[in-house]
């Protein structure tokens, strides 16, 4: 593992300490868990955006008529 050191606001440090105490986990464990979840979520979102841009560049998009037909099928109004 690579060590990191950075300042955090006092209120966050207090919340982290309280959560560590209440859950029986170390502060390091909680920070690593939060970072892991954040990185997974952000990576997923970036990959979805990249996939969408590839589809757009390939011309794989719905026409206005196709979108309107789907709205009508679902009982919504496109206007």
UniProtKB/TrEMBL annotation:
Family matches, as InterPro entries: Non-func_TypeII_TA_Antitoxin, Ribbon_hlx_hlx
CDD domains reported in the protein's UniProt record: RHH_CopAso-like
Highest taxon in the source lineage: Bacteria
UniProt GO BP: regulation of DNA-templated transcription
PANTHER family: PTHR40688, RIBBON-HELIX-HELIX PROTEIN COPG DOMAIN-CONTAINING PROTEIN
UniProt name for this protein: Ribbon-helix-helix protein domain-containing protein
Lineage: Bacteria, Pseudomonadati, Pseudomonadota, Gammaproteobacteria, Pseudomonadales
């Amino acid at each position: 593992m690579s060590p990191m050191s950075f300042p955090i606001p006092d209120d966050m440090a207090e919340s982290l300490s309280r959560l560590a105490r209440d859950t029986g986990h170390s502060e390091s464990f909680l920070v690593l868990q939060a970072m892991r979840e954040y990185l997974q979520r952000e990576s997923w979102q970036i990959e979805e955006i990249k996939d969408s841009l590839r589809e757009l560049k390939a011309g794989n998009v719905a026409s206005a008529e196709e979108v309107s037909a789907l709205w009508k099928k679902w009982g919504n109004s496109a206007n």
